[in-house]
Amino acid sequence: MSSQHFIDQKIFPAARTIKEFEKLLKSKFEVIILLNSHIGQLKSLIQLANKAGKKVFMHVDLVQGLKTDEYATQFICQDIKPAGIISTRKNVVLTAKKHSIIAVQRLFLLDSIALETSYKLLETTKPDYIEVLPGVMPHIIEEVYERTGIPIIAGGLIREKEDVARALEAGAIGVTTSRQELWNF
């Protein structure tokens, strides 16, 4: 899958609360990220988003009451049906891809060992997108894209407009952020 899923959107606003999610339903954004949620809320949140013409990418590792295994991911894919799934877990990404849900492999790149381990993981999962955290490392964004050819989304520790600009200049197709002041970048 290509970056056309995101149209021309460069900021992917990430809702940490239901109040923020509801605010995003009224926004100009087509793609929104759902971070923290509860399993009992998922179906109604996705239905609300669909009615509002939004595509929700759900961070399944942060769903309370849901074990992040293959069965839980099958449930999310078949019953909840978000546009995309974000996860750090290999089995979640692989299951999302099996169900034709856009899969975003989230990587915490803390040091050289984590980077090398991530490259091995990406060979197995072959996600549609990679979310690189922290997203304030332009040279790492460039390196990961050059090595994998998979579109990069920068996230984590993006605090200033300059952080957004540097990530995009480094080749990220977009930036995820829960900082509302950056949503209108």
Automatic annotation (TrEMBL):
Keyword field: Glycerol metabolism, RNA-binding, Transcription, Transcription regulation
InterPro entries documented for this protein: Aldolase_TIM (IPR013785), GlpP (IPR006699)
Coiled coil: none
Function statement: Regulates expression of the glpD operon. In the presence of glycerol 3-phosphate (G3P) causes antitermination of transcription of glpD at the inverted repeat of the leader region to enhance its transcription. Binds and stabilizes glpD leader mRNA.
GO MF annotation: an example: transcription antitermination factor activity, RNA binding
Protein name per its UniProtKB record: Glycerol uptake operon antiterminator regulatory protein
PANTHER family named among the record's database cross-references: GLYCEROL UPTAKE OPERON ANTITERMINATOR REGULATORY PROTEIN (PTHR35787)
GO process terms (BP): glycerol metabolic process; positive regulation of DNA-templated transcription
Superkingdom in the source lineage: Bacteria
Record has RNA-binding as a keyword: yes
Alphabetical list of SUPFAM superfamilies matching this protein: GlpP-like (SSF110391)
